Amino acid sequence: MNAQLNLEQNLNIKTLVSMLKMNSLDSFMNIGSPLKGRDIIFTSNDNVRFPIGGWDKNMSKQNEIPVNRIVPVLESTIVGGVDSTCLKIAETADGSIYAIKCGVVFCLSLDIMVHFRIGPLLLYLTDDSLRSSELDSRLLKVVSYDAEMARRMIRINMERIIQYELSKVLHNSVILVDGSLKDSIFENRQYNLSKITENCLLNRNILLGLGKSTKYKILDKVSIGLRSFRDPGLIDVGFIIKSLVRNTLGYNTMVKFAKNTLIMRADIVASSIPDAIFSLGKIMGNDPLPSGYPESLSMAHHISSFSSSEISGIKVHLLKKYDLAELPAHNPRQEILGSL
Amino acid sequence: MNILSKNGNELVLLGMKNEIIHKGDYLLVDDKKLDRKMILQVFDEDYLSSQNLIEDIVKDEIILATSEENVHDPLNISSISKEVRDAKLVRTKIRSSIDVSGKICSNVSWIPSRVYSSVTKLSIEEMGILLNRNGNKSIDIGKSGHGEKFQIYAEDLDGRLNIITGKKESGKSHLSKLLIKSLVEYGAFVLVFDLNNEYGGLALTRKDEPSSLRDRVVVLEPGSLLRFTLDYCGRFTMSNILKNILETPSTSIREFFRIWDKLERTNTLNMESLGQMINRVSMNELVREALISRYHLLDNSGLFSETIGHGLQFEKIIAGRPHGAAMIISLNRVSGIIRRMIVELVLSKLVDLLEKHLIPAIFLFAEEAHLYVGETYWDDIITRMRHFGIFTTFITNQPDALGESIYRQVDNIFLFNFLNESDLEKISRVSLIDNDTIKSIVRTLPPGQCLMVGKVVRDLPIVATVPSIDLKTLGATKKFFPVS
After folding, report:
1. R_g (Cα) of chain B, nearest Å
2. Do B68 and A113 lie within an 8 Å CB cutoff?
3. Is residue B151 classed exposed, middle or buried when 0-12, 13-18 and 19+ CB atoms within 10 A define those classes?
4. Phi then psi for B212, rounded to 5 degrees?
5. Per-residue pLDDT, A45
6. What is the pLDDT of residues A101-128, one digit of tens each?
7. Residue A6: inside a domain, yes or no?
8. Burial readout A63-90 (b: 16 or more C-beta within 10 A, e: otherwise)
9. How many domains in chain A?
10. Which residues, including other chains, have CB under 8 Å from residue B114's CB and lie 6 or more apart?
């Protein structure tokens, strides 16, 4: 009883409110006047969403960057798209098991020629196996504790091996990479982006990193001219990107492959902007671009994604082949919070 | 296989592609925790379909249709995932359970554990032991889907009402010939109403050599061997023919039997004398007209012998073949009314003989009975005559042609393939087992395979393929174009 009275005397709602006001979050809590009258889009499940027509329709024309028209180049050129998916499949007391799948798709003259399905391959990441890798000791800790980082590391390494091989084997072709061309912290000494770029230059291949979305809102603002441009086009956003990010390769551009389609971030390893435009023209002339996105990349994504039956297959394979004992498991979050 | 779900008396199991299961197979669920067993019968199979699986299949199909595929799958996980896609739902009906003493019981009010139960296939032999199916006179009725030999017992056909039904050319006549052959081999007497002249070949093999029934088959054709004296037919039988078949008014029937009695007294009861007397005796002219027309029908039927003492006698046929006989009454060349007269005459006479204990019980095989037996007469056949010792097997491709009363009293049904929805509907409404089993199994039965229901299988339906028998096939459809 005394303890209850003491608690009520020392801690009441007013005290809590005053404590919140002294907090560093206080300045963000005044949402009324800064928010009033603004345009808004609601996000869901951390999916990146963009307003149709851009954030600021009334933005001054002065902010616009000149748009370069892309003309399809009807010269037969192989366009190869690479993508991969990595999933965490299981955990043991010592580490985690990941599965990776890669898809490589080749297009020529607006037709899909051939595709490669690689995997599922299984990887078992333990402290011991990570220690024996060439990873930096700080990264090693991050990878062993953070599944998202581990998945990124596996994907980067797998994709780089494939891209490296393609850059060696192909000549006068286009290699499409999902995402921007930026050195990752997980780059491998043997198959890193620099070596791939080097090979591409030697074999006269075009290396192009294509990102469906960008986290930099400024890029959306400056691409207003490209959005209203009726034809396929490109704007050079290198001066913005280089000021924000280090380690990017090639020309940093925003591209649109067809009228009313998605504006994408494109990093192109080329000698000049006209050369980059010519490279994009080659993609337009050889890769079907439904919805303005290269079919080779889109199909590589589908090939590399895991089906539910594959996930079941992997589990069966593990249980059958390695004599594993599946332990009953529980979901503490669900148990505590309930199914609602 | 594992138990997945239960809905009413249906248990759904999860099976893989390599687990070969046929519709109609029996499975045993052994709940080790409860120490109880349950007998299930497979009635349908389905794919395990989830939205994800369907999406995966569609996605793969599109990718494969788009370009040539090269796969590097060192762990061969795709083969396992293909197995997942081929996983199947085995739909079963709970038929019965086995109690602690190992005996079959009908208590299925419990559900087996999904965790501690094992599912195994039940062989025909194991089923036979569980069902305590036994007898001295086995009939090899065919093989199960897994090639196991399956037998029924002649004792289970004895005193029973049976139906063999299925669509055209599904194997009905084949099974009825097999049953007739087996019954006669066991010394039984079988009478067949042969509508399409199919059963005459029972005495011969396919190579025209004498079969095991050799001299035990008697083909009785109207006008030839199938001729009776009026005296043998008797008043009762003749009265039935006049009343039921020839629709003679009662006054005329009375007049007819007045003449009959006169002829009997003078020992001159034959067709010729009967005709003369009808013309000569004084009676109402309308009655005479009625009797003359009936007389001509009787006379032209060829069923009645002119000479006293020179007619067919069933008891003599039976006495002359003490080890069994098949009496085939050929109905294919006679008109509808004569067909009905023959059936009436034969059945009435058999009842008469059975009542007087002059012949043993007889198995009657009636093909497309609705074509020669009036609807009201069916009840008589299946109730009264059964008590006297006529055990009928109806063979038909029109299940709706048989009255509900027949289905209600039927003991065994041999079901061949039916595709027609209304036939399936009729069968499933009146049959001894559930709708789902009938519709699912019967619809997919290949020719020659039948679903047996009833006493012969102790009320647990069994699917078997009827074997071929080395008997001469008669009654083939005459065709215009020669068969090469």
Report:
1. 29
2. yes
3. middle
4. -65, -20
5. 58
6. 999 999 988 889 889 998 888 888 888 8
7. no
8. ebbebbebebbeeebbbbbbbbbbbebb
9. 1
10. B2, B3, B4
Residue A27, pLDDT > 80, answer no
Nearest to B69 among A115, A121, A307 (CB): A115
Residue A54 pLDDT greater than 70, yes or no = no
Helices (H), B160-229: 172-185
The reply to whether residue B74 touches residue A310, judged by beta carbons under 8 angstroms, is: no
Contact between B180 and B202 under an 8 Å Cβ cutoff? The reply is: yes
Any A CB within 8 A of B18 CB: no
Query: Going by C-beta distance under 8 Å and a sequence separation of 6 or more, which residues neighbour residue B403?
Result: B375, B378, B379
Query: What pLDDT, on the 0 to 100 scale, is given for residue B184?
Result: 92
Closest alpha carbon to A108 in A232, A266, A282, A276: A282
Q: Is pLDDT of A58 > 80? A: no
Residue B482 burial (C-beta neighbours within 10 Å; 0-12, 13-18, 19+): exposed
**Residue B53 near chain A (CB below 8 Å):** yes
Give the integer Cα–Cα distance in Å for A26 and A28. Answer: 5
Are B445 and B451 in contact by the 8 Å Cβ rule? The answer is: yes
Q: What is the CATH number of the domain that holds A200?
A: 3.30.2170
Residue A175, beta-bridge partner list: A80, A207
State mean pLDDT over A36-52: 68
Task: Give the per-residue pLDDT at A340.
Answer: 57
Task: Report if residue A59 sits inside a domain.
Answer: no
Residue A19 domain-assigned?
Answer: no
Q: What is the mean pLDDT of chain A?
A: 81
DSSP string, A16-84: HHHHHHHSTTHHHH--HHHHTT-------TT-----TT-S-TT--GGG--PPEE-----S---EEEEEE
Q: Which of B68, B72, B84 faces A118 most closely, judged by CB atoms?
A: B72
Question: What letter represents residue B482's amino acid?
Answer: P
What ipTM describes this predicted complex? 0.71
Strands B88-98 and A206-211: unpaired
Q: What sign has the CA pseudo-torsion B443, B449, B455, B460? A: negative
Helix axes B230-240, B336-355, angle to 10 degrees: 110
How far is residue B312's CA from residue B318's CA, in Å, rounded to a whole number? 11
pLDDT of A162 strictly over 70: yes
Give Cα separations from B136 to B57, B59, B110, B156, B454 (angstroms): 55, 60, 36, 11, 19
- A104: containing domain: 68-308
Nearest-by-CA chain A residue for B79: A313
Q: What is the pLDDT of residue B284?
A: 85
Q: What percent of chain A has pLDDT over 90?
A: 14
Give the integer Cα–Cα distance in Å for B222 and B343: 11
Give the residue from A103, A265, A263 showing the smallest Cα distance to A182.
Answer: A265
Say whether residue B80 is in contact with chain A using an 8 A CB cutoff. yes
Is there a contact between A120 and B52 if contact means CB atoms under 8 Å apart? no
Residues B150, B458 contacting (CB under 8 angstroms): no
Q: What is the mean pLDDT of residues A287-295?
A: 88
Mean pLDDT per 10-residue interval, chain B, length 484 residues:
89 89 89 88 88 86 87 85 86 87 81 90 84 84 82 89 87 89 92 87 83 85 85 86 86 90 86 87 86 88 77 87 90 86 86 88 87 70 80 87 80 87 77 79 88 86 86 71 68
Is A327 among the domain residues?
A: no
The token pair that represents A268 in the structure block:
């192109």
Tell me if A117 and B69 make a contact (CB, 8 A cut-off). yes
Contacts of B437 (CB under 8 A, 6+ apart): B41, B43, B93, B451, B461
- Rounded to a whole number of angstroms, the distance from the CA of B85 to the nearest CA of chain A is 7
Q: What is the largest CA-CA distance in chain B?
A: 107
Cα A137 to Cα B395: distance, rounded to the nearest angstrom: 86
Cβ contacts (< 8 Å) between A115 and chain B: which residues?
63, 66-70
Contact B33, A80 (CB under 8 A): no
